Amino acid sequence: MPGTNEQDHSCCGGRNIEKVEDLGKIMPCEEEAYDVSELFKVLGDYTRVNILFVLQKGEICVCDIAQLLNMTQSAISHQLRVLKQARLVKYRRDGKTVYYSIADSHVDTILSMGIEHISE
Length: 120
Description:
It is built from six helices and three strands; from the N terminus they run αααβααββα.
């Protein structure tokens, strides 16, 4: 059963003990694995992914994103809040207007690799 500390090697007799020990040393800690799974949950939403693709092309305001995706500004703002909490986007204010952009090159890489993967 996943998550238990019971070790059942009956399937193969525990023949790869060294390999298991080596892999155990490089596995991410529980908190890191949880954080990565949360990241993928955020990326698992069609609207949020579309917003990120728009932001790949550069900085843009909420009203323009809403127009591009044919959604309300309120709906876009909600999704941007989720993306911001996940540190996938950043923003800057210019008067009353807020402009959003991709947080860093890692986000761009994740999106690009996703497209590359599905295109194979």
